[in-house]
Hints:
The structure holds two protein chains of two kinds.
Chain A: H1 6-23, H2 27-33, H3 38-46, H4 65-78, H5 80-99, H6 102-114, E1 119-122, E2 138-142, E3 145-156, E4 163-169, E5 178-184, E6 190-192, E7 206-217, E8 221-222, H7 228-264, E9 266-267, E10 270-271, H8 276-305, H9 310-335, H10 347-355, H11 364-375
Parallel strand pairs in A: 1-4
Antiparallel strand pairs in A: 2-3, 3-7, 4-5, 5-8, 6-7, 9-10
Chain B: E1 2-6, E2 9-11, E3 33-35, H1 37-52, E4 57-63, H2 68-78, E5 82-86, H3 96-110, E6 114-118, H4 129-137, E7 141-145, E8 147-151, E9 154-160, E10 165-171, E11 174-178, H5 190-196, E12 201-204, H6 206-209, H7 241-251
Parallel strand pairs in B: 1-4, 1-6, 4-5, 5-12, 6-11, 7-11
Antiparallel strand pairs in B: 2-3, 8-9, 9-10
Helix pairs in contact in B: 2-5, 3-4
Amino acid sequence: MYELSDDQQAIVEMVRSFATTALAPHAAEWDEEKHFPVDVLADAGELGMGGIYVREEFGGSGMSRTDAVLIFEELAAADPSIAAYISIHNMVAWMIDAHGNDEQRAAWLPGLTAMTELGSYCLTEPGVGSDAGALTTRAVLDGDHYVINGTKQFISGAGSSAWYVVMARTADTGSHGISAIVVPADTPGLSFGANEKKMGWRAQPTRQVVFENVRIPVANRLGEEGDGFMIAMKGLNGGRVNIGACSLGGGRAALEKSVAYLKERQAFGGPLIKQQHLLFEIADMDTELETARTMLLRAADALERGAPDTVKLCAMAKRVATDAGFHVANQALQLHGGYGYLSEYGLEKIVRDLRVHQILEGSNEIMRLIVGRLAIED
Amino acid sequence: MKIAVLIKQVPDTADERTLDPETGWLNRDAGDNIVDEINERALEVALQVKDKDKSTEIVVLAMGPDEASKAIRKALSMGADSGVHVLDDSLAGADAVRTAAVLAAALKGIGADVIVAGNESTDGRGGVVPAMVAEHLGLPLVGALSVIELSGGKVSGERQGEAGTLTVSAVLPAVVTVTERTAEARFPNFKGILTAKRKPVNTVSVADLGVQDPAARAVLVAHSPRPARVAGKKILDDGTAGTLLADYLIENRLV
């Protein structure tokens, strides 16, 4: 399970080359300019990153969840913001592949897997976050169409994406009354809020998505009416592992920068790395990241096999990896002293980008709720 | 069109490259061994032909130890169709003359319409093997192209020199070499990586190729490590720095 195959080594090598040439040199500028590099995403799509674990029939790469962990770690080591968007896009593509019918897959997957068309996942609402089962966006049946009204909040890629997988209420039966509906960008009545000003993740847009009498054919619904919450939660299992891998990659980059800096920086008569307490700090950071990597690979393996403890392991891995990534990045900033606080050194961006990973794809408090409830289950 | 691309596994230029003090041969364990970047550009030329015409067949040919199969695999993952690996212990330390004879023998078996190679490798930097191969095969050499067009049964392109740019062409079959000014090589995509293992690689020995005279003709007499860098000369400006600087440059024939 932990030794990479020849293919996986080749995959890691390729993604690392791509990330260091196509992402890393531009990451700071994209962050500062709030530039969403859709052309680079299309390049990533050409390499197979638009549907990593989507089946091959409609353009997916047909790879495993473990492969995805390796890929997102490498992408995030160059730019967590772009890596994380690609993770969300993959979640959307997978939801269509796993829960769509053949007509839907044939219609939507070729563009999504090529990343010439982007996807957004619309679950959260202005007044509904962790308690997702209480969402209020409504889809009312009218002939062979749904009429959707409501607002979605914090939607990654909104305004740039071609396809929006929207969780909307089709019945007043709590989480069982939610359906997943695919909404094309050009539908009348669909509009977007302003690009949110954020602490991090600035290279990808985050906007409200507003639905005013948006008419969508019933044929755009994924699965049956009422399946939406189940589809949304299943998507999030993979989303959690992937976002954890993005934290791991960002944390690794911060650790590598710290090792290089402590070896070079002279103080108290020698390089800082000669100070044993700083060496211990490096040891702790490395150990935290390796722990996260181990958990992520185990959760990815469970997800791949459909193991009974998948939900628990994905929640644990998400919490461990996103906490580890942020902590390591924050420590790396501290180890760089005043330089860590300067944008030029790249540390403060990693800290800003990784902070939100503890909040989204289910906050880390929700991860503890999931793990805790499963632990006391009879 | 059938295109043969010559590839060589070389030490990564990002690592320290050393020679074995006993044999004077390349120390292959000193760092990562990768496909020479200039060969990836040669392959890119072939792949761009294939992008336009799917019937194009690309065969990559490498001579080298066991590990060179990784370089072939990388080329297959980028989009080449098959590989030929000349693997023979008797070839260890082969010089350019020997290498060219072996590659030419292998190329006779491949029967390509055009042979594309890098103009020189980043390790040996001899830059003579493609010309020797062309000589063995009785083919024209169209060398050091910075712009290349392969179509309609001919190769044409541009070669840049100090005095100007030559526009050259030849009717195929021919041996063509490219410089680092040609297009940067593509990344292999996931599908390419995952299907590379299923593509055929024909491993052949010197005996299979029927090449005579196994000995290398070049003999290494001596070698020494690169001298450590010494501190540069510092000129303190007491009003005469300009003159001192000019004197230094003239004295060391730097102008």
